[in-house]
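Recall from the previous chapter that SMILES is a line notation for molecules. Here it describes zinc ion.
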Amino acid sequence: MTPQEVAALLAYMGRLDPRSVRTDRAEARDQLAQWSELLAEVPATTANGWDAAEVIRRHVTTSPYPLLPVDVTREWHTHARDVLGRHVDPPPAADPDDVTSWRAELLGTRHAVVTGTRPPNEQRELTGAMHADVAARLAELGRYIPPAVEDVLDQFRPRKAARRAAIKAGKPDALAVPCTYCKAEANSPCTRGAVGPDRRRGPRVDMRQPHPCRVEAAAAARLAQGVAA
Ligand SMILES: [Zn+2]
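With both inputs in hand, we obtain:
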């Protein structure tokens, strides 16, 4: 409270309890100085229901004793504890390695909650539906490589590009089944024998296109699953 707010509070108290009024100028000045000092940290009112004047009114109606500054500060601390009790600290946006900033933000948020400039955060855990943006990103992560990146990569891997194009076009995915001709396993490309410069049989090399019989086998497999080829 500012000295002006304390003076208004003392005037209000004087109207409810004339015993508290100091008629001597020096005494009145000392009373104002003492209350201003002791209530410097206590707000006059807050947006979350605190009102120092209400404490005075309640005290006068319930206690025969003169009201002391400590009666106001005690009520204020009880109010602040109640509000903070409903508040769950949200993680500060500051870098956790920057302890000073992190701590300052945490305390600043608590102070804002106590003084009512922001409501307490009562959310104790994540609830509700996942945000659409998060769901979309998770879906892409689940694909291992985001579709947009796959499209860029396709120009460097014609075989996989052909396979994805076939799947997108609703055609049978030949590589989903093994090849009965070259014995390539499912998900592996068809291979053909190569002949080295010395006319000896070299290692088998991957083919860009699957053997035709493998495409037919894949189409037949799709038909067997009840999917029109
Ligand atoms: Zn093959």
